[in-house]
C-alpha cells in the first residue's frame, strides 16, 4: 500500500483502454471523444499559464469540449480529474490516511486501498433502486466524480468545481411552442449531422425498438441521406418491439436484423464467460451492470452484420430529457412549497426505489428519504421561493438513475471495443431541454409534436409507437383465464399475480432466466422486473469480491 506519501496518485486500469499523453511536467489520461489535437492545445495553454490559475484555464478548456469523455491530468503535485456532462466515463477516488488515490476503475482502487467496509445506506439504495444515490458507492471512503464536475487533488486536499449542471428550469425569455418546435428540429438534425460526419462513411448501427427515441435516430439519419445505415432488434419471437422496428426499417429501406432471445438462450448466456467478463468489466460498486445490448451485439459482431469499425447510436435517453418521466402532480405544482417537498420525495421513492414488493420496511424508506433530502440540500435546490418542483425531480433522476444506470449501458460497446455516440445526451440537447417550460414537457408534448409535424421519411404518422402486445403466444390463453379468475379481487391484486406468475415468461428478452422460475415462486417478495433479480445477483457479486480483498 502507498500510505506514506502525501502526493495524490493515479491508478489507471489497462482493461479500460484509456489513452495516455505526456509532455514536460504534464501527463494526461483520457477516454472518449477528446482528440489528440484538443489535448495538444490544452498542454500548450497550461504550459504558458501561471500555476495559480491553471485550474481556471483547465475549466475554460473543458467547457469548449463536445461529446463524452473522462479525463485525468497530472501536473507536479496536483491532479485535475473531470467527467463530461453526463459522467459517461467514470472516475473514482479514495482517501486513505494522507494519501489520495484517483483512477478509472473502482476495483483497482479498492484493492490498492484495501477497502472493505460497507456503507449500509448505500447498499440499501442499490438493493431498492439498482443504483446508489449521490457521489457515494456501496463502500465507505470510495467515491465517484459526478456529472459536469472537476475535482482538484493536491496533497490531501480535494476541491470541487462544477463546470456544468443539468438543472431544468423555465427561462424568463421562453419563446412560443412553434418557435421551440422549430428550434428542437434544427438542433436534432444538427446533432445527427455531426454523427454522420463522425462516421465518415463507416457503418452506423441503430438498436431499434418500438419507442420514439431510436426511431428518431434512424429516421433522422435517413432523412439526412446517411450512407451505410443498418438497424437491429432482439428479444422473444414476434415481440412487439421487434415487429414495430421491422416495419420502420422496411419503410426506410434500411437493412434490419433480428436476434432471437429466449429463456433458454439467456440461461446459457448468463452462465457464459462473456457475461462473467462483462460483469467484471462494468463493476463499479454503484449500479447494477446494464447489459441489455451485450448478447445481441456480440452475436451480430460474430455473424459480421455489425462491422468492427461501426459506430453505434442508440436513443438514450430521449424519453427522460423530453419530460416523459415527470409525474403530472409534479408538473402541476409549479414553485416548490415546503409541504410538497415530502410528497415529491415520497413519490420519487415509490417510482424508483421499489424493485421488490414485500421486502423493504418503512424504516428503509426513511433512510432513502434522508439520502435524497441530503442530496437536494447539497445541490442547493431547496429554496422554496425559487425552485420549481419538476426541477428537483429531474435533477434527482439525472444524477442517479440516468447517469449511473441508463448511461452505463454504453459500457457494453466499450467492452466490445465498438465506437458509440449519444446525440440525445449531447451538450446542445442538455442546454435546450433545460430551458423548455414544464407544460411543454408534460407527456413529452413538444417532443412528440416535433416528431409528428416533421414526420421524417414518413414513419411517424401511421406506424404506432409502443403498441404493446403479449408474447409469447402460448401464454395468452393462460393469462386471459388467470385475469378472469383474479377480476373479483381488484386490479392491484391482478398486477401482483401477473408479476409473480407471468412476467418471468413475458419479459421481452428472457432476462429473468438468471434465476430459476420455481425459486422465484417460492419467495414472499415479488420482483418488479428483471432488474430486481440482476441487482440481487450483483450484490452477491460485490460481497464475493470483498471476501477476496
Head-to-tail CA distance between termini: 13 Å
Give me the CATH fold name of the largest domain. Rossmann fold
Helix segment count?
24
Large-scale geometry: globular
**How many domains, as an integer?**
4
Q: What is the helical fraction, as a range of percent?
A: 40-55%
Read across the widest sheet, the strand sequence of neighbours is 2-3-4-5-9-10
- Rg, rounded, reads 24 Å
- Output mean pLDDT: 93
| Overall CATH class of the largest domain | Alpha Beta
Under CATH, the homologous superfamily of the largest domain reads HUPs
**Secondary-structure arrangement, i.e. CATH architecture of the largest domain:** 3-Layer(aba) Sandwich
Sequence stretches where pLDDT stays below 50 over 5 or more residues:
none
Estimated share of beta-strand residues:
5-15%
Largest sheet: 6 strands, antiparallel
Total strands: 17
User: Which class of secondary structure composition applies to the elements?
Assistant: alpha/beta
Amino acid at each position: 500500500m502507498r500510505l506514506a506519501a502525501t502526493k495524490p496518485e493515479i491508478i489507471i486500469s489497462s482493461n479500460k483502454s484509456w489513452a495516455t499523453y505526456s509532455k514536460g511536467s504534464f501527463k494526461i489520461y483520457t477516454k472518449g471523444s477528446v482528440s489528440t489535437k484538443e489535448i495538444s492545445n490544452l498542454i500548450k495553454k497550461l504550459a504558458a499559464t501561471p500555476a495559480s490559475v491553471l485550474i481556471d484555464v483547465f475549466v475554460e478548456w473543458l467547457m469548449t469540449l463536445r461529446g463524452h469523455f473522462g479525463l485525468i491530468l497530472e501536473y507536479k503535485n496536483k491532479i485535475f480529474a473531470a467527467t463530461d456532462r453526463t459522467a459517461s466515463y467514470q472516475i473514482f477516488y479514495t482517501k486513505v490516511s494522507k494519501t489520495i488515490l484517483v483512477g478509472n476503475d473502482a476495483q483497482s482502487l479498492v484493492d490498492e486501498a484495501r477497502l472493505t467496509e460497507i456503507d449500509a445506506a448505500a447498499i440499501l439504495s442499490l438493493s431498492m433502486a439498482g443504483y446508489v444515490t449521490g457521489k457515494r458507492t456501496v463502500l465507505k471512503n470510495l467515491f465517484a466524480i459526478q456529472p459536469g464536475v472537476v475535482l482538484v487533488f493536491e496533497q490531501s486536499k480535494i476541491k470541487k468545481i462544477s463546470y456544468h449542471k443539468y438543472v431544468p428550469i423555465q427561462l424568463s425569455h421562453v419563446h412560443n411552442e412553434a418557435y421551440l418546435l422549430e428550434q428542437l428540429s434544427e438542433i436534432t438534425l444538427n446533432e445527427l449531422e455531426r454523427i454522420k460526419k463522425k462516421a465518415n462513411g463507416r457503418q452506423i448501427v441503430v438498436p431499434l425498438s418500438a419507442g420514439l427515441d431510436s426511431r428518431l435516430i434512424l429516421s433522422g439519419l435517413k432523412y439526412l441521406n446517411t450512407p451505410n445505415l443498418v438497424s437491429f432488434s432482439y428479444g422473444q419471437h414476434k415481440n412487439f418491439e421487434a415487429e414495430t422496428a421491422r416495419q420502420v426499417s422496411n419503410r426506410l429501406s434500411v437493412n434490419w436484423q433480428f436476434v432471437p432471445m429466449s429463456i433458454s438462450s439467456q440461461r446459457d448466456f448468463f452462465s457464459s464467460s462473456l457475461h462473467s467478463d462483462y460483469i467484471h468489466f462494468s463493476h463499479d460498486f454503484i449500479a447494477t451492470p446494464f447489459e441489455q445490448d451485450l448478447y445481441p451485439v456480440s452475436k451480430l459482431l460474430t455473424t459480421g452484420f455489425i462491422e468492427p469499425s461501426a459506430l453505434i447510436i442508440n436513443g438514450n435517453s430521449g424519453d427522460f430529457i423530453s419530460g416523459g418521466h415527470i409525474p403530472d402532480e409534479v408538473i402541476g405544482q409549479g414553485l416548490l412549497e415546503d409541504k410538497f417537498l415530502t410528497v415529491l420525495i415520497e413519490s420519487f421513492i415509490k417510482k424508483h426505489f421499489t424493485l421488490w414488493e414485500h421486502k423493504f420496511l418503512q424504516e428503509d424508506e426513511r433512510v432513502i428519504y434522508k439520502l435524497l433530502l441530503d442530496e437536494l440540500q447539497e445541490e442547493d435546490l431547496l429554496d422554496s421561493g425559487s425552485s420549481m418542483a419538476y426541477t428537483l425531480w429531474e435533477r434527482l433522476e439525472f444524477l442517479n438513475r440516468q447517469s449511473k444506470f441508463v448511461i452505463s449501458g454504453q459500457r457494453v460497446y466499450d467492452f466490445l471495443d465498438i465506437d458509440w455516440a449519444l446525440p440525445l445526451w449531447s451538450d446542445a440537447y442538455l442546454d435546450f431541454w433545460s430551458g423548455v417550460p414544464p407544460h411543454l414537457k408534460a407527456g413529452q408534448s413538444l417532443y412528440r409534436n416535433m416528431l409528428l409535424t416533421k414526420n421524417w421519411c414518413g414513419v411517424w404518422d401511421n406506424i404506432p409507437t409502443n403498441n404493446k402486445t403479449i408474447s409469447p403466444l402460448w401464454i395468452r390463453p393462460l393469462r386471459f383465464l388467470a385475469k378472469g379468475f383474479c377480476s373479483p379481487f381488484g386490479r392491484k391484486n391482478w398486477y401482483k399475480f401477473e408479476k409473480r406468475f407471468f412476467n418471468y415468461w413475458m419479459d421481452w428478452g428472457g432476462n429473468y432466466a438468471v434465476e430459476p422460475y420455481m425459486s422465484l415462486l417460492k419467495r414472499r417478495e415479488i420482483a418488479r422486473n428483471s432488474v430486481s433479480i440482476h441487482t440481487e445477483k450483483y450484490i452477491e457479486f460485490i460481497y464475493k469480491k470483498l471476501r477476496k480483498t
